[in-house]
Design goal:
The protein is α+β, with helices and mostly antiparallel strands. Helix content is 31%, strand content 34%.
Length: 145
Amino acid sequence: MDKASREAAEKDEVDLSGGEKEAQLRQLFVEALSQGRLSLIEKLFAPDFVDHSTPEQELGYAGVQVYFRAVRAGFPDIQVSLEDVIVQGEKVAVRTTWRGTHLGAYEGVAPTGQPVTRTLIQIFRIVDGLITEEWNEGAGLLDGL
């Protein structure tokens, strides 16, 4: 690839700053998940997104939409706080706290009315402005019931 072609290709890439990547994840958790603006998922995720921690999840943003719908059905008041955010290159590590009330069926469990809290450590890979991969460790939403 000659210099002119390489420079043109670089202009097409979206290289977000650390602050922009953090803002993107805040938008994901606050607007898309907590507020239910699921249309944002297609804007935030790559079409071939992979959640390495949930191999049964459908690939791409369709799998994220299914998951967010299920969480919002089971915990309609879900709130996610980003406690810590660390950006290094394409990867963003976050420590999140999820809080909600089990008011709907979730993962086959009838609503209990009980409040739940869980903490996750998540690592996202963001390439060209889109979330392409995720890894996570932490308790499930039903583990505290």
